Amino acid sequence: VHGNLKPSNILFDSSGQPLLADMGVFHNAGFAARNNVYISPEQEARGAPVDGRTDVYALGVLLYEMLVAGPPPVGADPSPRLKRADLPVGVVNVIRQAMAPYPEGRFAWAGDLHDALAAALASEGELRATPEVVGGTLHHTTVPAELEEAILVQAEHE
């Protein structure tokens, strides 16, 4: 269990492979956890025991943020389709399950999240990240390989 997955703890080596930093540093919730969207509800509320589902929650938030270009709303429906109606329903369902408010509703392990996301992508086709404008031209960046790599790295640590 990493316990503090967030963009600043994901580093990339010279070949573009994602690496997790700060392993095991953040096992107990406390003042630093407040207002951190990547911290699972059970981790934020009185430092309840955490397991792999805490990291699954953070991965769900990371996926949401990568596809919507912003964090999910706090205390509201986390469906990324509210901001991006073009997202495939299967992918949205994976993200929502990863971000379930109670650990029992989430994937048990990051590997389960990976498998569900891979199945959703296989049935939906290519997934594109949030469009960006570069030099006045709208570009889409494909992301399945990067998403899979980040999730695989986490799954290997479980």
Write the layout of secondary structure elements.
Blueprint: E1 10-12, E2 18-20, H1 41-44, H2 52-68, H3 89-98, H4 110-124, E3 132-134, E4 137-139, H5 144-156
Antiparallel strand pairs: 1-2, 3-4
Account of the 3D structure:
The protein is mainly alpha-helical. The chain has helices at residues 41-44, 52-68, 89-98, 110-124, 144-156, and strands at residues 10-12, 18-20, 132-134, 137-139. The strands form 2 sheets. It has a two-stranded antiparallel ribbon with strand order 1-2. Strands 3-4 form a two-stranded antiparallel sheet. The longest helix has 17 residues, at 52-68. The radius of gyration is 15 Å and the shape is globular. The termini are close together. The model is unreliable at 131-144 (pLDDT under 50).
Ends apart, CA distance between termini: 7 Å
Strand content: 5-15%
Cα gyration radius (Å): 15 Å
Low-confidence segments, given as residue ranges, are 131-144
SSE series:
EEHHHHEEH
Shape: globular
Give the total of beta strands.
4
Overall pLDDT score: 76
For the largest beta-sheet, the strand count, sense and barrel status come to: 2 strands, antiparallel
State the share of residues found in helices, binned by percent.
25-40%
The strands making up the biggest β-sheet line up spatially as 1-2
SS field, number of helical segments? 5
